[in-house]
Amino acid sequence: MASEGMTRIAAKDVESNRRRGGDLRTLLSPATAQATAGFMGVLTLQPGEVVTEHYHPYSEEFLYLISGELLAKIDGEPVPLAAGEALHLKINVRHRLENHGTEPAFMVFQLGPLAPRPELGHVDTEPLPGQESA
For residue 127, is pLDDT > 60? Predict the structure, then answer.
């Protein structure tokens, strides 16, 4: 729902993006809310799922794990995350998320500032799921 001065969006109403792994839904963004400073969304990772390594050349990323547990690999170094913990990633920091637990992990993320163009926002540093070489 959008009106002058505010936008309200339900995660169930946003299409899932599984390009890098997991169920990622960008809720508030330039496209959905005419945001100008950044974007935010939610990520669900089932047990055994990952979000492939990438970095953001223009944006900081803020992650908050609501439920479950994750292993974040930050510039290759393992950083375990438990529910209720937050993680701040600076610009150009490579990161990958892995769910080695037995329960789904649910996370909120926010990035800002925006890249000059959406296609410049992410740089992938490993093959995307399903595109690994044989």
Answer: yes
